[in-house]
Specification:
Keywords: Signal. This protein has helices at about 1-15, 85-95, 115-125, 230-245, 265-270, 360-375, and strands at about 20-25, 30, 45-50, 60-70, 75-85, 100-105, 130-145, 150, 155-165, 170-175, 180, 190-195, 205-210, 215-220, 275-280, 300-305, 305-320, 325-340, 345-350. It has about 375 residues and is α+β, with helices and mostly antiparallel strands.
C-alpha cells in the first residue's frame, strides 16, 4: 500500500514540475539556477517555493534544504527546514505563500547539524576541491514505513543550484592567521586545525598541511589573550614544555618553569602523547643540555618583517619490548616569529612530533615554502 502510494506520488510530481518552482534570492534579488554569486553575499541567501503539488503522505516529513558540495560533488554541509507529520506537512505545502522567503543563514528558519556558514567558508580556504562550492536547493519528502524507518527521498520540486567561488591561489586569505599567502607553490590542502572544542575559551584554531606523512601545524597566538606574551616568551614557553616532556617532568632547577603563566596547548599542537620525544632536550641523550640556558638551543631567523627563532632536533623513542633507545626515528622543527602586519599576533609553524622518514632538510624546506608565501 505504501509503495503504491509513493509510485503514484512520483508520477504526479513529474507532471507538476513544469508548474512548481524553487527560487533563490541574494540581497533580495532572484538568482537563476546555474549562476555564480559572490562569497561575500552568500549570507543573505533566501529561498521560496510556489505551486507545490498536493500529495498525501500520512506519516513522514518534508525537507526544504540547502546543501554545499565541493567540485567532486562530495558533501560539505547542509541546512534544512523540516516539517514532520501529516498536518504540519500539509499546512506547509498548501498554505505557504509563494511570496514567503525563508532566510537560510541569517534567521531561525533553517537549522544545521553541522557548522555555521562562517566556519565552513573559512575552512574552505586552502582546500583545493573547495576553490568553488556548489550550492544546491531542493525540497523532498520521505514517507515513514516503520518505526523510525523511512522510504526513499522523493523530490517535490526540481532542485536548483548555483556556484560560489571561495578562493584563488595568488591571494589566499587565512583568517585564523590573519595573513594572505600565494599558494601557488603549495600543492597540498591547507585544512583548519583546532586544539579543542570551539565552545571552549582556551581553544586555539589554526591550520595544518599534510605532506609526505608529515603534518605541519600553523597557528597565530594572540598577545591580547595571553597578557605578557611576546616572541621570546612564546619560544621560552615551548622549549620548557618539551624539556619537561622529554624528561618525564623531572628537570634541573635552572629549567623549572611555570606553565600556568600562559597555559598554551602545546600538548595538542605538537602531539606530545606519542612515544617519540625530542633528543636535544633529553638529559640522558644530550647530557650537556642539563646545564644550558634552553633559549641557547634556538637559532635566530628572519623572513622579511618576520623575525624570531627556530629550533630543530631529531626524535627518539624507547622500544617497548627491548627497552633500547632508538635515535633519529623522526625529525622536528619549529619556527616562532612576529606577525608581519598584525602586532597582536605571533606566528608559529612546526611539525607534529612522531615517527617519520622525512629528512630534517625536507621538513625545513616545506616550512620555509609556507613562510615565504606570506605576503608582507
Amino acid at each position: 500500500m505504501k509503495i503504491n502510494r509513493l509510485l503514484l506520488l512520483v508520477s504526479l510530481l513529474s507532471f507538476a514540475f513544469s508548474q512548481a518552482q524553487l527560487s533563490a534570492f541574494i540581497n533580495g534579488k532572484e538568482v537563476k539556477s546555474g549562476a555564480t554569486i559572490s562569497k561575500k553575499d552568500l549570507a543573505t541567501l533566501q529561498v521560496s517555493f510556489k505551486k507545490p503539488k498536493a500529495v498525501t503522505v500520512y506519516s513522514g516529513y518534508t525537507n526544504l534544504y540547502v546543501e554545499f558540495s565541493d567540485n567532486s560533488n562530495t558533501y560539505i554541509n547542509s541546512w534544512s527546514f523540516q516539517k514532520d507529520g501529516y498536518t504540519a506537512m500539509t499546512d506547509f505545502m498548501k498554505n505557504t505563500p509563494a511570496t514567503k522567503k525563508f532566510s537560510v543563514f541569517e534567521g531561525k528558519d533553517f537549522l544545521t547539524r553541522g557548522n555555521k556558514l562562517e566556519w565552513i567558508l573559512n575552512g574552505a580556504n586552502g582546500v583545493e576541491k573547495q576553490k568553488t562550492i556548489k550550492v544546491e536547493i531542493g525540497f523532498w519528502v520521505r514517507e515513514e514505513t516503520g518505526y523510525k524507518e523511512y522510504g526513499p527521498k522523493v523530490q517535490l520540486l526540481e532542485p536548483i543550484f548555483f556556484y560560489v567561488p571561495i578562493w584563488e591561489a595568488k591571494n589566499l586569505y587565512l583568517a585564523y592567521l590573519d595573513v594572505t599567502i600565494d599558494k601557488t607553490n603549495i600543492k597540498e590542502d591547507i585544512n583548519t586545525s583546532q586544539t579543542g572544542s570551539t565552545d571552549r575559551s582556551d581553544t586555539e584554531v589554526g591550520y595544518q598541511i599534510h605532506k609526505n606523512q608529515e603534518t605541519y601545524k600553523i597557528y597565530a597566538f594572540e598577545k591580547s589573550s595571553h597578557p605578557g606574551l611576546t616572541v621570546d616568551e612564546l619560544a621560552k614557553d615551548f622549549i620548557h614544555r618539551v624539556t619537561y616532556h622529554s624528561n618525564n617532568d623531572k628537570v634541573k632547577k635552572i629549567h623549572e618553569y611555570d606553565f600556568e603563566k600562559y597555559n598554551l596547548p602545546w600538548y595538542h599542537i605538537c602531539v606530545l602523547f606519542r612515544d617519540e620525544q625530542i633528543q636535544n632536550v633529553d638529559y640522558f641523550i644530550t647530557k650537556d643540555v642539563k646545564s644550558k640556558d634552553l633559549m641557547s638551543l634556538y637559532e635566530k631567523v628572519e623572513f622579511g618583517k618576520m623575525k624570531g627563532y627556530t629550533f630543530q632536533s631529531g626524535l627518539y623513542n624507547t622500544g617497548r619490548q627491548d627497552g633500547k633507545t632508538y635515535k633519529d626515528v623522526g625529525q622536528f622543527r619549529i619556527y616562532i616569529l612576529n606577525h608581519p602586519t598584525n602586532p597582536d599576533l605571533i606566528l608559529m609553524v612546526c611539525n607534529e612530533i612522531g615517527r617519520g622518514t622525512e629528512t630534517a632538510q625536507a621538513i625545513d624546506a616545506n616550512m620555509q615554502t609556507f613562510l615565504k608565501s606570506i605576503k608582507q
